Amino acid sequence: MEYETPLFFHVMGYAADAEGDVIDMVSGNPDWEPPESLREGLREYADFDADRFQYPPSEGIRPLREEIAARRGVGVSQVVLTNGAGEANYLAMARALERGAGSEVILTDPVYSYYPGKTTMLGGRAHYVSAGADGQLDPSVVRAAASEDTAAIVVNTPNNPTGAVYPEATVHELVEIAETNDAILVSDEVYDHYDLSGTFTSALSVDSAHRIVTNAFSKSLAITGFRVGYAIFPPHLVDDAKSRHMLVNVAGSRPAQYAVLRALQETDPAYHEANRDLLRERVDLFTGALESAGADYVEPDGAFYVLARFDGYPGTLETVEQLIDQAGVAGMPGSAFGESASSWLRFALVTPRVEEAADRLAEYVA
Ligand SMILES: Cc1ncc(COP(=O)(O)O)c(C=O)c1O
């Protein structure tokens, strides 16, 4: 079997190896600080007795699972701590496909590039439904695509790469479509703290045996390297997911889980508000400069990416490499996110130099 290897690490490497000054807007690695309590938790861990350097419970340390369960209003037994949202999505999709309730996975186009590879890896077949130019998903399109062969419907809100935030009615209807078709809605909400519109609704807002919510602290606490995420399963699906997690990983990282727990307990909501403010400012600066240059872009309602389009520069890897080498700005090819994004380029707002980046791009393509 051939896996579709996502392009992110390739482009990051290309940008890092390039000569000259390159503004790196490739991947969703926040450049802002984690909460101070997270650093304190990590420091504190270094001096713990060595028995706390040994295996944690496979499904994750109990107090962090309890903290998450309390915040999300679910039972602690439903929470599995994972190696980032990446593993959470993998466990969720695996469970959906293993139930003997179909082999098709409904994905959106544009799509977060890791879902297609996971679908294939797990023996599923991707069935794409198109999201509009603004990334919004029309539930009636999903309903028309769903059938008894649908095992999972995988969505992401706030969305990477479009920045769309699905309204409450869409989220509720997606859960209902999953129920009607004996499918599982997998709702990846890893950017929930970066809802810039105030309209985000979690799929947890509907109680259902047909939805799994995935999330992580990678983005919300600016720690993509810590690898702490979680999935919330309906009670009847959780045990097999825990077994798969154990068979693949044995367990997660205990010091990382501990530091996340400290951060959750001690971080003020103002931390997240400040990050959203920073992003709003960057969105304005970046899109403002694109606007002045007459370039097309998609204004994001959430997450931290902007899709931009320049005449004569298709959203291919070749264009991206050319822009890295000649314009000094590194983004991702839209084609990595599906057919419908193939004329776009995606830029992650993870640098203070977003305005300069937009100016460089505008000048180069002029
Ligand atoms: C939509 C989406 N899901 C999952 C992930 C992966 O998250 P993690 O680093 O927690 O595995 C990302 C990372 O960019 C993402 O954009």
UniProtKB/TrEMBL annotation:
BP terms from Gene Ontology: amino acid metabolic process
Cofactor: pyridoxal 5'-phosphate
Keyword field: Aminotransferase, Pyridoxal phosphate, Transferase
Stretches assigned to the Aminotransferase class I/classII large domain: 21-360
InterPro entries membership: Aminotransferase_I/II_large (IPR004839), AspAT/PAT-like (IPR050596), PyrdxlP-dep_Trfase (IPR015424), PyrdxlP-dep_Trfase_major (IPR015421)
A molecular function (GO) term: transaminase activity
Family: Belongs to the class-I pyridoxal-phosphate-dependent aminotransferase family.
Name listed for the protein in its UniProt record: Aspartate/tyrosine/aromatic aminotransferase
Organism: Halovivax ruber (strain DSM 18193 / JCM 13892 / XH-70)
